[in-house]
Amino acid sequence: MGQIKVEKNVGGIKGLCIIQPAVHGDNRGYFMETYNQNDMREAGLDMVFVQDNQSMSVKGVLRGLHFQKQFPQGKLVRVIKGSVFDVAVDLRPGSETYGKWFGVELTEENKKQFYIPEGFAHGFLVLSEIAEFCYKCTDFYHPGDEGGLAWNDPAIGVEWPTLEGRYQGSASAEGYVLSDGTPLNLSEKDQKWQGIDKL
Q: How far is it, in rounded angstroms, from Cα 145 to Cα 72?
């Protein structure tokens, strides 16, 4: 027991949590528990996960901002290789922090995990040459249920680190680069999402 440290309501947004596992290391390497239901419950987190996902992305890829419309998912996310800037935007109707965002850098070195409850849009920007991203979900994937929000919506104002460019009225990646010149890389679908005022 007691293998995690939980920071709740990060960024002043109720429900968002940063979870820091205890890492046991020596000259051979390290060991850590990446998930323990008893420790989570002891910390007041009683979500049940039903699906694990993993993705790999190259530097400059931005995935997001995604949410599920009819079957919302809570997500416990972490990076096992590389680094990303991970972002959640509160889209819960009636929330005091509706439209507010919070971001955290997740890396293979810091081993932080980020819990994003149901009702948030989520996305991440890859800062390393490659990143392997793992997450647990509280509901299954339902085809056709995905919604999205423009990653650069000025009404939300996410401050993506190292990203340079000027908003030109859409979610297009055109004209955006990382500070080292790497072009921003978005899927065709992610360049078509609109702002929060269109939800």
A: 9
What positions carry a catalytic annotation? Answer: 66, 135
pLDDT tens by residue, 59-104: 999 999 999 999 999 999 999 999 999 999 999 999 999 999 999 9
CA 189, 86, 98: angle at the middle one, nearest 5?
80
Structure confidence by residue, pLDDT tens digits, 25-38: 999 999 999 999 99
Report the C-alpha gap between 50 and 6 in whole angstroms.
21
pLDDT tens per residue, range 171-189: 999 999 999 999 999 999 9
Which residues on adjacent β-strands are paired with residue 140? none
d(CA 68, CA 87) in angstroms, rounded, equals 16
Backbone φ and ψ of 39, nearest 5°: -65, -40
The residue written with tokens 């998912």 in the block is: 73
Structure tokens at 87: 């972002």
Q: Is the bond preceding residue 91 a cis peptide, omega within 30 degrees?
A: no
| pTM score over 0.70 | yes
Q: Where are the beta strands (DSSP E) in the chain?
A: 4-8, 17-21, 23-26, 29-32, 51-58, 62-68, 75-81, 83-90, 101-107, 113-116, 120-126, 130-137, 146-148, 163-164, 177-178
